[in-house]
Amino acid sequence: KTLKYIHAAFAAFDIYLLKRHDAVQDYIDDGSFSASEAEEAKRYWETYLEHDEERQQRLIAMITAGLPGAQEGFTLDDFRAAVSKYEGMSVEVLREHIAYFLDAVVPVANAAGVRLCCHADDPAFTPFLGTPRAVGGAQGYKFLLDHGCGVNLCIGSLMANENNRDITTVIREIADYGQMKGLSIDAIFPHIHLRPIETDGKNFREGHHAEHREELAKVVHTLVDLGWQGVFRPDHAPQSDHGFGRPGYDVIGRGYGANLLLGLFEMAEIVKTTRFRAVEAAIKAANGDMALKEEAVEAARKAESDKIGRKIAFIKVPFAFGEQGVVAHLR
User: Fold this and answer.
1) Count of alpha carbons within 13 angstroms of residue 295, beta-carbon side
2) What's the CA gap between 36 and 27, in Å, rounded?
3) Which end of the chain is more exposed for a tag (fewer CB within 10 A), N or C?
4) Domain final residue pick, 84, 113, 137
5) Cis ω before 318 (30° cut-off from 0)
6) Residue 247 lies in a domain
7) Structural domain ending residue among the three candidates 65, 84, 103
8) Cα(122)–Cα(247) distance, rounded to whole angstroms?
9) SS3 category, 98
10) What is the residue range of 27's domain?
């Protein structure tokens, strides 16, 4: 019904099914998993997978299926061969390869009127299957901007990494860097994926847009505040009642998400246009008294925050019912 990442299951796949290394200690030594994570993987293997061929094949199929738009997946041998190409490679060397590609392709794309952008590592963990990861946060995106490539900002991929949980700060850091390079905000972020996730710092699953509208509102207000007017998509969504499509790509759920996000953008634009008038009026009311001026500005900010909170509460999407009861709880 939804896309979900269970760290112990993934580690069990890597260690006991993919078998990149001959010994568990090798996975610990190359930084793939800590000793405690390797132990969790062992328990998961012994409890759920070791004596259940059907579960093993289902897990293999999930992980080797390829991208959602792909028609073909990988066999275990193909998967192992693809990953092995990066064995022993550092992040620095990987970025050299990416830079070589971008430096050749970006000028041609620009000349054709095409703005290229790159998605974040998904999930933004490093290392992953023993491979280096080049774009897992603000520093990776700055590297792309250095080579003329735009940011395909996917907040779901980034926020799987606890270092990116303060996502609005990450967005502003990338925006500041790109603007210092003379880029417009739309050139920095040509395409944005807006989807919420729920995580304990290691495991995560995709959440309903409706249940995370406060968090999404912060991101939307940040983008509008920066003057962004680019392209966004709701990206993934758990399956809703009467929905259809692959897990994570439910058509009805994504439609709910898209409309909720459109409402958030409209609201943010309205708030932005009224903000400065409210602050100016507060300053004028202070009549030049600096102490009163600060109080007035703070009062205006609080009033704006309260207004946003009230507006968010009025944004509604239909309830979604399933076998487990209400899927989306609107507060």
Assistant:
1) 8
2) 12
3) C
4) 84
5) no
6) no
7) 84
8) 16
9) helix
10) 4-84
Q: Give the list of residues 6+ apart from residue 267 with CB closer than 8 angstroms, or none.
A: 217, 308, 311, 312, 315
Please calculate the CA angle 223-128-206 and round it to the nearest 5 degrees. Answer: 45
Q: Mean pLDDT in runs of 10 for the chain (331 residues)?
A: 87 95 91 93 95 94 73 81 88 95 97 94 85 91 97 92 89 96 95 89 86 88 90 85 77 87 87 68 66 72 64 40 38 39
| DSSP 8-state secondary structure symbol assigned to residue 191 | E
Q: Residue 254 in contact with residue 234, Cβ under 8 Å? A: yes
Q: How far apart are CA 28 and CA 215, in angstroms?
A: 35
**SS3 state at 5:** strand
Distance CA(57)–CA(268), nearest Å, equals 47
Q: Model-level pTM?
A: 0.79
Closest by CA to 208, choosing from 44, 293, 327, is 327
* pLDDT given at position 68: 60
Q: What pLDDT is stored for residue 33 in this prediction?
A: 92
Cα–Cα distance between 194 and 211 in angstroms, integer? 13
Distance CA 93, CA 116 (A): 22
**Cα 307 to chain center, whole Å?**
27
Q: How many CB atoms lie within 10 A of CB 142?
A: 16
Sheet holding 4-5, edge to edge: 4-5, 204-206, 197-199
Secondary structure class of 254 (helix, strand, coil): helix
